[in-house]
C-alpha cells in the first residue's frame, strides 16, 4: 500500500507535456521545455545549452557535442547541461531518472567508438565545467581531481611536484580523466604503469537514481569487500557518471630517451621486442609498432620529423622504443649498448635507428607515433578496429583484411585507400585502420563480421582499449561468453533499471 502511494506521488511530479523518443531507445522520453524549466532551478543559464529554451541556443553550438571526433557518429540532442558540482549532477540525474530521459555523459568527446554522443536526442551531460584538482599528496603520490580535468592539464599540474599521471595518449590535450577512466584508456605507457584498474584508487560516481557513491578513497590498500569502483572503470558511462577520480601518480622519471628503429621485415618485431626487453629491462617504458604505410601517411601529413629517406629505404615497419629511468648515464649506456648490439649483429633485426639527442628530438619522434590517428583522419574516413591479437599475427591481420577488401573490389581510390596497422606491442594491441574515401554501408558490410571473425579465430579481443560504445554492441559475443553478457545485463539492470544511462551503448 505504502509503495503504491509512493509510486503515485512520483508519477504526479512528472510534467504532463512530454514526448516519446522514436523507436530504438524504447521507453525513454525527450527533453521538454518543462524539463528545461526544472534544470534552470539547478543550474545557472550559462550551464544550459538548448535549442528548446526561450532564448534558444543555435543548433550549430550543439554540433561539437552531437558529433564525434571521427565525424562518424551523429546525435540529435537538443540539450547540453554543464554542471559545476557533484550535487548539481546528482539533481539533474535524479530528475532524468524520474522522467525517464536518457543521459549521455560526455568528457572530451575524443572516444573512437561513438560512446560519447547520443544515438537520438538523449540529454548530453558534459563534465567540462568540473575541472578542479581537489588534492595532491606528494608523499603518497595520490591525486584527487574532478572528472572533467583534461589529461594534459593534470600532467602540467603534477610536473612541478615531480610526478606524472600514469597514463599518456595522443588525445591528452582534449580527453578528460573521467573519460579515460570510463573507457579504461590504455595509451602509450601501459607497458610501464599498467592499466587504470590498478592505478585508480577511488571514484566518486553519481548513480542513475541520483545517489552519490563516494568511494574517493586515498588509501593504497583497502580489502573491505567488493571493489565497486572497478565496475565503473571501462563502463563507458552506462552505470553512472564519474564525477571525481583518485589516482596514484607516478614519480616523474629523472631521464627519458627514445629511439625510432626501422625494420626490414615485420617478422623481426617479435625477436626485437624480446631482445629490447632483455637488455633494457626496468628502464623500458614504451614499445610501439608503426607499419610503413601509416608511417608514410604521418610524414605526408606533417606529423613529427621524418627520418632520412635514404636511411629507411626498404624498411617494412618501425618501432618506437622509449626508456624512462632514474639515472641518465645508466639509461643512455643501456640504450647505446642495445643499439650497438643490434647494428653489429650477424643478422641484424634492424636497418637503422634514430636516437633522440635532445628534448626537441625526443618530442619529434613521439609526434610521429602520436600523430598517426590524425594523419589517418586527414587522409580519409577511418574504420577503426582496436583489437588484441597475438603479436606475431599483427601483420597477418592487416594483410588478410586488405586482401579481403581487394577480393570485394573495394581497394581503390574511391573506396578503401589504405589498410594500415599500428599499436602497442607490449599490450598485444593492434590498431587496424581501414582508410576509406567515405563511410559507406558497402565497405562496412565487407568489414563486418569479417574482422570480428578473424579476431575470434585468434582468440583475441574485439576491443583492446577503445571500448564497445555504439560501434560494437552487436559484436560483443565475439569476445564475451553468453554467461558474461547475461551477468553484464543483470548488473546494468540493477544499477539502472530505467535504462537512462548512456542508452544503446555497450550492451546489445
Ligand atoms: P569521451 O569521448 O567524451 O567519452 C568516452 C566514453 O566515456 C563515452 O561512453 C562517455 O559516455 C563516457 N564518459 C566520458 N566521461 C564520463 C564520465 N565522467 N562519467 C561516465 N562516463 C563518461 N584511447 C586509448 O585507450 N589509448 C590511446 O592511445 C588513445 N589515443 C587516442 C588518440 C587520439 C588522437 C584520439 C582522438 C583518441 C584516442 N583514444 C585513445 C581514444 C580516447 O581518447 C580515449 O578513449 C579517452 O579516454 C576518451 O576520453 P574523453 O574524455 O574524450 O571521453
Ligand atoms: C593510439 O594508440 C590510439 O594511437 C588511437 O589508441 C588508435 O587511431 C587509432 O586507431
Ligand atoms: Zn591505442
TrEMBL record:
Instruction: Write down the InterPro entries for this protein, in alphabetical order.
Output: FAD-bd_oxidored_4_C (IPR004113), FAD-bd_PCMH (IPR016166), FAD-bd_PCMH-like_sf (IPR036318), FAD-bd_PCMH_sub1 (IPR016167), FAD-bd_PCMH_sub2 (IPR016169), FAD-linked_Oxase-like_C (IPR016164), FAD-oxidored/transferase_4 (IPR051264), Oxid_FAD_bind_N (IPR006094)
Has UniProt tagged this entry with the keyword Nucleotide-binding?
Answer: no
**Positions of the FAD-binding PCMH-type domain:** 73-252
> Which reactions does this protein catalyse?
(R)-lactate + 2 Fe(III)-[cytochrome c] = 2 Fe(II)-[cytochrome c] + pyruvate + 2 H(+)
- Name the domain of life: Eukaryota
User: What cofactor(s) does the depicted protein rely on?
Assistant: FAD
Q: Which PROSITE patterns match?
A: FAD_PCMH (PS51387)
Q: What would you give as a GO molecular function for this chain, any one? A: FAD binding
CC per GO annotation: mitochondrion
List UniProt keywords, sorted A-Z: FAD, Flavoprotein, Oxidoreductase
Question: Family per UniProt?
Answer: Belongs to the FAD-binding oxidoreductase/transferase type 4 family.
Query: What protein am I looking at?
Result: FAD-binding domain-containing protein
Amino acid at each position: 500500500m505504502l509503495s503504491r502511494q509512493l509510486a503515485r506521488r512520483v508519477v504526479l511530479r512528472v510534467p504532463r507535456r512530454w514526448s516519446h523518443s522514436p523507436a530504438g531507445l524504447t521507453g525513454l522520453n525527450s527533453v521538454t521545455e518543462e524539463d528545461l524549466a526544472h534544470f534552470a532551478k539547478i543550474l545557472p543559464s550559462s550551464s544550459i545549452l538548448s535549442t528548446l529554451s526561450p532564448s534558444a541556443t543555435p543548433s550549430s553550438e550543439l554540433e561539437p557535442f552531437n558529433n564525434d571526433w571521427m565525424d562518424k557518429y551523429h546525435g540529435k540532442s537538443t540539450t547540453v547541461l554543464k554542471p559545476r558540482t557533484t550535487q548539481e549532477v546528482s539533481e539533474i540525474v535524479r530528475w532524468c531518472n524520474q522522467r525517464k530521459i536518457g543521459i549521455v555523459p560526455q568528457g572530451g568527446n575524443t572516444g573512437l567508438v561513438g560512446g560519447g554522443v547520443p544515438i537520438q536526442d538523449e540529454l548530453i551531460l558534459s563534465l567540462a565545467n568540473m575541472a578542479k584538482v581537489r588534492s595532491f599528496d606528494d608523499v603518497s603520490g595520490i591525486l584527487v581531481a574532478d572528472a572533467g580535468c583534461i589529461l594534459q592539464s593534470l600532467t602540467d599540474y603534477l610536473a612541478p611536484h615531480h610526478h606524472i599521471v600514469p597514463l599518456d595518449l595522443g588525445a591528452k590535450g582534449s580527453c578528460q580523466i573521467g573519460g579515460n577512466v570510463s573507457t579504461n584508456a590504455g595509451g602509450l605507457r601501459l607497458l610501464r604503469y599498467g592499466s587504470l584498474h590498478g592505478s585508480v584508487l577511488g571514484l566518486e560516481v553519481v548513480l542513475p537514481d541520483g545517489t552519490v557513491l563516494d568511494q574517493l578513497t586515498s588509501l593504497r590498500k583497502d580489502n573491505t569487500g567488493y571493489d565497486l569502483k572497478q565496475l565503473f572503470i571501462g563502463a563507458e558511462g552506462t552505470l553512472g557518471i564519474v564525477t571525481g577520480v583518485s589516482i596514484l601518480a607516478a614519480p616523474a622519471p629523472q631521464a627519458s630517451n627514445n629511439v625510432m628503429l626501422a625494420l626490414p621485415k615485420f617478422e623481426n618485431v617479435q625477436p626485437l621486442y624480446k631482445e629490447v626487453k632483455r637488455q633494457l629491462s626496468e628502464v623500458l617504458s614504451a614499445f610501439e609498432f608503426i607499419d610503413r604505410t601509416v608511417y608514410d601517411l604521418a610524414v605526408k601529413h606533417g606529423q613529427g620529423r621524418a627520418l632520412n629517406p635514404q636511411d629507411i629505404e626498404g624498411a617494412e615497419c618501425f618501432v618506437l622504443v622509449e626508456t624512462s629511468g632514474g639515472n641518465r648515464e645508466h639509461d643512455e649506456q643501456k640504450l647505446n649498448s642495445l643499439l650497438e648490439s643490434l647494428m653489429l649483429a650477424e643478422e641484424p633485426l634492424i636497418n637503422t635507428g634514430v636516437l633522440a639527442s635532445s628534448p626537441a628530438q625526443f618530442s619529434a619522434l613521439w609526434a610521429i607515433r602520436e600523430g598517426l590517428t590524425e594523419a589517418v583522419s586527414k587522409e580519409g574516413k577511418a574504420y577503426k578496429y582496436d583489437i588484441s591479437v597475438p603479436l606475431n599475427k599483427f601483420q597477418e591481420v592487416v594483410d588478410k583484411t586488405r586482401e579481403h577488401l581487394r577480393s570485394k573490389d573495394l581497394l581503390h581510390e574511391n573506396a578503401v585507400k589504405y589498410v594500415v596497422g599500428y599499436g602497442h606491442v607490449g599490450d598485444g594491441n593492434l590498431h587496424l585502420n581501414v582508410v576509406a574515401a567515405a563511410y559507406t554501408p558497402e565497405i562496412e558490410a565487407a568489414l563486418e563480421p569479417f574482422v570480428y571473425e578473424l579476431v575470434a579465430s585468434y582468440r583475441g579481443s574485439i576491443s583492446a582499449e577503445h571500448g564497445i560504445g555504439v560501434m560494437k554492441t552487436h559484436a560483443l559475443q565475439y569476445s564475451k561468453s553468453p554467461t558474461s553478457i547475461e551477468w553484464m545485463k543483470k548488473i546494468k539492470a540493477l544499477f539502472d533499471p530505467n535504462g537512462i544511462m548512456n542508452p544503446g551503448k555497450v550492451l546489445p
